[in-house]
Amino acid sequence: MLVWERPEPPDRPMPAPLSRERIVQAAIRLADADGLDAVSLRKVAAVLDVGPMRLYRYIATKEELLDLMVDAVHAEIRPAGDGWREVLRSLAEAIREAAHQREWLADLLGGRPQLGPNTMAGGEAVLAAMGGVDLGTVVPAVAAVHAYVIGAVRREITERRAERASGMDQKQWQAAFGPYLQRTFATGRFPALASVVHDGPHLDADQTFRTGLDFLLDGIEARISS
């Protein structure tokens, strides 16, 4: 039986009462502080001041714990708006905001569909907003938005981690590699790249995300209208 359907053990008088919610919130605090590497059933048990074996009465594996953590975050992701375009935009921006608040979420996005109640409630809101649109368009459109958000968020989080690891922010990195690029472009081998670097727009992360999302939503709208 999946964790979503498996009942919790009955309450018993204990010095440290447990529940799946308490376990998941403790795991989230560990991940918020030190990333997913800090999350294990043993470490969660230590935070809750209980023996690790007690946790196995509630959660069978670490994979179940990670699924529960993702679903708990999805309680904060509530796509809303008037019409499918606003709802899809709301979904994309809410996922991005959640991942910026909790970097570890970026490592768990994608893959097989999440089946927790909060995640499914968000999916229901999105699909309901697209009611009346042909399912042959709905399914790939929603998948495309998810793929865009996951890719954008992972790139942004990777950049943030690189800044911490290198000690250089984006402007410092550009300054360090600028002379190399100038020498390379001077060879004339990469004229298209040189044009983009010299003359292209230099958007910040928010502008890049929203502009790309607009391009995607414009394409979906054109397909729906055709």
How would you characterize the overall build of this protein?
This protein is mainly alpha-helical and about 230 residues long. It contains ten helices and no strands. The longest helix has about 30 residues, at about 135-165. The protein is flat, with a radius of gyration of 22 Å. The termini are far apart.
Sum this structure up briefly.
With 226 residues, the protein is mostly helical.
Spatial gap, N to C terminus: 45 Å
Strand count, sense and barrel status of the largest sheet are: none
DSSP strand tally: 0
Structural class call reads mainly alpha
Order of helices and strands: HHHHHHHHHH
What's the total helix number?
Answer: 10
Gyration radius, rounded: 22 Å
Q: Outline the low-pLDDT stretches.
A: none
Q: Name the overall outline.
A: flat
Helix-residue proportion: 55-70%
Q: Would you tell me the overall average pLDDT? A: 92
β-sheet strand percentage: under 5%
Which terms summarize this structure?
single chain; 226 residues; mainly alpha; 10 helices
